[in-house]
Amino acid sequence: MKQQKILLIGLLLLGFGCNKKSKEPAAAPSAVDVSTADLIGKTWGATGTGPRYHLELSFADKVAKFESHAEGVTCGIADYSLSGNTIAFGKTRPCPKADDYVVLRELPEQKCRYVVDPTAIQHTITLQCAAMSFGRLDSLLPAGRKVFHDGIELISEGWAHGETVTAAKFRSRPEKTAATIAYDPGNEMEGSKPKTDVIAAGTTVVLIGRTPNKHKVEKWENYWYFVEVYGLDTYRGWVFGELLKKK
To answer: Most exposed residue of 25, 59, 94, 133, measured as fewest CB within 10 angstroms of its CB?
Structure first.
């Protein structure tokens, strides 16, 4: 009888273990030693704006080039040196004169760390500087990967573009009753606009990931999508899939 009780308890514990939800793996970003082979021939974009990189960075032997595409093409170059996981940049100076760009504003001397993070939802390889970070474009998370964000499991969408087919509530979690996110739909050219928690129909969004399973909301069944929306700033939140279409 005692052995049967022990066996029963063991089976119950095993069953509880099997029913546990997947937990977010411990984040493990690490600064690793960097070499010119990690830099030269690669293109880097300032992160925080999805694939819409306004400032790009590329490397040659001992010289780095910063190019901005926000208002025409601007360009600056800076000397750099490597030490362990750190890249030290000198002040930028004008690129060799050309007719198709203007001089990029001077960037100060700065140091950046070369960081690899296999759990990242955007770039798994970044340069982390004091004022901004750059993601290596060839490390942008591809579609179909299982990732976690705020403890929520996602299937990555490869940062593809989508569009709202109707006005959509912008939510903080993949739930119909979740709190909404108020964002400023303005832009740098037109300035600020009244904040709203509704993404207007026809708005382009970036699809970061979706829930692994479909959810029922009223009469529909679809995935919830974790998206990035451009406005006066860059915003991330959730939109129900019935309100989106992929481009």
So the answer is: 25
